[in-house]
Design a protein that fits this description.
alpha+beta, two-stranded antiparallel ribbon, 6 strands, about 40% strand, globular
Amino acid sequence: MQEETGLLVRIERPIGEIHYRYVVRVRSLRVEKVVHHYLMEPRGGDVADHDHEYDIAAWVEAQDAMRRLTYDNERDMLRRALELLEFADEGDGGRVDGRRSGGSREAAG
């Protein structure tokens, strides 16, 4: 995460997976890719130090992130993360894995 986003994070729990399939035509190669998504807590770092493979890394409100995401499966991951945070807020006094969760719903990416 630090390499891509510039943030030091602590993994809280898994959210889900997205499975992709595509073909590299130059090599006639079929690729199957799995992206694992996790709920994470930022512990330090700065998004200004993100990998320059990406144009932008920023904290945005969850509703803005939902509008920015291109694919339904990515929006589903964000919904799951928000549900986990909401459940934590209601279910155990606002705690995620034994620590107080933040009230603001923001996303980096």
